[in-house]
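[09:14] KT: can someone run the structure on this one? pasting the chain below
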Amino acid sequence: MVERVHKMMKHAALRSSIQMARELGAFPIWDWEVEKDSLFLLQIAGEDPLLYADIAKYGRRNIAMLTIAPAGSVSILTQTSSGIEPVFSIEPYTRRKKINPNDTNTRVDFVDQIGDSWQEFKVYHPKLKTWMDITGETDWKKSPWYGFCAPDIDWIGRVKLQAAAQRHVDHAISSTVNLPEDVKEQKISEIYQAAWEEGLKGITVYRDKCRSGVLVTEVKKEVIDKSVAPTRPDVLQADVYHPTIKGHRYFVVVGLMGEDPYECFTGSNHDNQGEIIIPKTVEKGEVYKKNRSQYTLSCNGAEYALTKRHNDVNADALTRLISTALRFGASIQFIVEQLNKTEGDMHAFAKVVGRTLKKYIKNGMSAENCPECTTRMTYEGGCPTCKQCGYAKCS
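[09:31] RB: done, structure tokens below
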């Protein structure tokens, strides 16, 4: 049935294109010698030799005959069936639309990992709603679609179904194979391999929850994703900084795992006699863990204790929490933004540490919304900058 319908569409599109070519001429770069042996047109030769002969005689007006838009999205807009595109889910699900939180008539239901705001909508498949209206049934599990939605069907068979249509479509078919969250890499590889073997011009694979926006299954309850900190090696390369806060000399040592900050140590950088402990010439070193809660910085044969260097227990607690956040994967820009929100002037301890850590924010990372035009800003040189209006927070 699928193949017969698409064959009829193909022939109708070609006849229309040939008729226009007879009246207006073929498209400018049409060349019969180039395309006469294409697999698409050779099908026509076997199905309708007269149609094939007309193409040779008059050419085609359209460079492209057929393509298929995303049927799932279109079916939601038109409230119709999605045809050969399997229903994503008959279970009511949540769809997200990215929004500007400052726009009117919007609400922020979700903020993703990079700070973008989304509004959520509960979606019922239009045909499920029609079935409910007709039958009076409210249990969607009793519907004829239950057990036959995108995650339930044979995905390789799904690829072959698309291939049956692709044989009669000269351009690509926009189609997504929706998979459960726990599907294995090997199965995804098999789907792509089957798509290639069947001659598909394109196919998309979407594994449930593989990205945070656009299409998500219903979330039963809010949960915090737990992460595990990578095990600390015996030694880490480190950068050393020497800020002065209201006349008081400090050190800030940032231990690095690869290029990413993994831990942060701060402390007073002078002894009881006022002598400098870590010379200002020390800008790089290695951090060793001696035993529990005891770390030292090694540079050029000298060692400097990094722990128990604070008279202020709050400052000590702050740097411990910063290290914890870094080790468990919190984004460096988020940590810097939180430190900058603390009370006090630019010389406050937290803000000085924040200015030190912002050196590790890579250009292009997402920042907060611009206060001038509300466009999402990005970091450039450690400073939130708006590419839309030119506003820079650090200037």
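[09:33] KT: thanks! The CA atoms of residues 86 and 148 lie 8 Å apart.
[09:34] RB: yep, looked fine to me
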